[in-house]
Amino acid sequence: MRANQFRRRPGGRLIAVATVAGLLTAGAMTVAMPAAFADTLLTDDFEDGNSSGWSSSGGSWSVTTDGSRVYRQSGQSSDARTLTGTTSWRDYAVQARVRPTGFNGANRHVGVIARAQSSSRYYALVVTSTGGVQLVKRDGSAPVALANGSAAVPVDTWATLRLEANGSALRGYVNGGLVVQASDSALPSGRIGLAASYASASFDDVEVATVTGAPPTGGPTGGPTLPPTGPPLDPGAPPIGFASVDALGQRGTTGGAGGPTVTVGTATDFLTAISQPGPLNIRVQGMLALPGPMHDVMSDKTIVGVGANSGITGGGLNIGLPVSDATSPPPGAVHNVIIRNLNFRDTVDDAINVQMFSHHVWIDHNDLSDGYDGLIDVKRGASYVTVSWNHTHHHTKNMLLGHDDGNAAQDTGRLKVTYHHNWFDRTPQRNPRVRFGDPVHVFNNYFVYNTDVGVACQLNSGCVVEGNYFEDVEVPWSISYSGARGRLVARNNVLAGTSEPGDSGGTVTEPSTYYPYTVADPSGVRTAVMAGSGTGKLPF
Questions:
Q1: Domains in the chain and their CATH numbers?
Q2: Where are the beta strands (DSSP E) in 79-131?
Q3: 283 is annotated as an active-site residue
Q4: Which residue in 294, 270, 300, 287 sits closest to 353, CA to CA?
Q5: Taking the mean position of all CA atoms in its chain, how far away is CA 321?
Q6: 194 close to 82: Cβ distance less than 8 angstroms
């Protein structure tokens, strides 16, 4: 059992729990059953009728009935806080349903507390009496606002508040939407709590977990609803886009499904795992320094990072056979590979390279930056790929699709790729840069400050660019970026700070002829993608 973890039984009592699955040692690896990847530190729904484990400062706290049993602060004449947990907790998210019932004047608030060293040293996400949202820091004196936002929570209305503390990054969500964020390192660890400063409020369904990311929303009954700006972040959901298509003898993309699960914490163990034949689920624990440049991944593999801070530095991942001049798929083309929740840093070549007729690859919820060449390149006849919910930043040559003008023999009719809900964050070019692929589907992505070009669709490629949010992008899309033109259909995109969208034209096969999909309202894409992309958003 891990120390300092708590949960309430179905009756409501706070108890310690073990969250680590049973482990078996097999050679140099740790083999685990495919259990939950997240660590739940605490849950409390107060249904046992008491508040054991909580310590209050100020106010009048009690467990009472408000639909279900809740923890209520009933007075409005004091700065009231209540805390639980342990001061050793560091990187986590605290979430609770909150219902303000009254404020004693202006500049009053209710909310959730994280990293509390004491009742006067903590961070908090609060909703205010004037309809605002604040991320506050209290360090021995009055609370100081680190960030301000707007998401009104009227009196007698339930809202789900979530405060993430991950390193120095602090993020606050209201009903699943990212509202405020800031950076501060003064309080590296601490307990969680609830706050009602000269206000009365009810609190329910308190949850604390090491996983960070956009939470499910809840109304007065606490039932989940889907966010309006994109698909739910469900780790068990199949991919959307070309990786979902039944083709080339493969039914969608399932990765290591049906195979065992291994947890690897060294480069040696990782390289052994990705080179094994047969289905395998590989959990990467920590940042692994691989020798450069590239390392081959065999078919039927799922590779996921554990938590928000696991991944790879140095060497990159190659999904594909060695390069040749073959113009048709060779026997044994690599297929059915999933890569999720990994950080890629300082790779000496590509971070992820998909090549040589590889197919059915899903690259999802990764954070990639500071590479030498491409972050995610797809080339040499590869196809049926989905690139989704990734955050790319601090890098110039982002994503290449089709590597050379002279490679028509391998690429024509292939390079079918879907890019959705990615955050192209100040990556100047190749977002993506496309040759020959048709169709290439780019939807519901967030492009910000790309100083060269967003989507460059060239050399007889066909791109559908729809429902994206472009902010301060030099040229959002183009069919005349360099060399022979492609074909591009652009529709229903938001251009913020961008007066000239670029050029488009020609006809493109509709992606809907291959797979079903739903385009979210592009006005909400920026918020949804910033909140949901990258690592730490799924319970791995």
A1: 6-25+36-225 (2.60.120.560), 244-251+319-532 (2.160.20.10)
A2: 79-84, 92-103, 109-118, 121-128
A3: no
A4: 294
A5: 30
A6: yes
160 CB contacts (<8 Å, ≥6 apart)? 95, 96, 97, 98, 173, 174, 175, 176, 215, 216, 217, 218
- pLDDT higher than threshold 90 for residue 105: no
CA distances to 449, 462, 479, 484 from 456, in Å: 15, 10, 6, 11
Lowest model confidence (mean pLDDT) among 171-175, 363-367, 421-425, 448-452: 171-175
- Length of the chain (residues): 540
For residues 69 and 47, the answer to whether their CB atoms sit within 8 Å is: yes
Asked if 84 and 55 count as a contact pair (C-beta separation under 8 A), the reply is: yes
What gap in Å lies between CA 103 and CA 107, rounded to an integer?
9
Closest Cα to residue 94, out of 208, 211, 216, 218? Answer: 208
DSSP code, position 436: S
Q: What is the token pair recorded at 240?
A: 């959307």
Residue 505 is given by DSSP the state B
The percent of the chain in helix, strand and coil, each rounded to the nearest 5, is 5, 45, 50
Given 108, 430, 433, 435, which residue is catalytic?
430
Strand partners, 65: 69
Kindly state the tokens that stand for 104.
Answer: 């004693």
Distances (CA, A) of 444 to 127, 345, 460, 489: 30, 25, 24, 15
Over range 386-399, report the average pLDDT.
Answer: 96
Cis peptide before 216 (omega within 30 of 0): no
Amino acid found at 484 = A
Is the entire prediction scored with pTM above 0.85? no
CA proximity to 164, closest of 345, 308, 340: 308
Residue 457 CA to residue 435 CA, distance in Å, equals 7
pLDDT of residue 21: 29
What letter does residue 242 receive in the DSSP assignment?
Answer: G
Residue 25 has pLDDT above 50, yes or no: no
Reading the block at residue 8, the tokens are 């309430």
**Confidence grade of residue 157 (pLDDT, cut at 50, 70, 90):** confident
Looking at residue 39, its pLDDT comes to 61
CB atoms within 10 A of CB 65: 11
Between CA 347 and CA 165 the distance in angstroms is 28
The pLDDT value given to residue 299:
98
The angle formed by the CA atoms of residues 411, 415 and 416, to the nearest 5 degrees, is 145
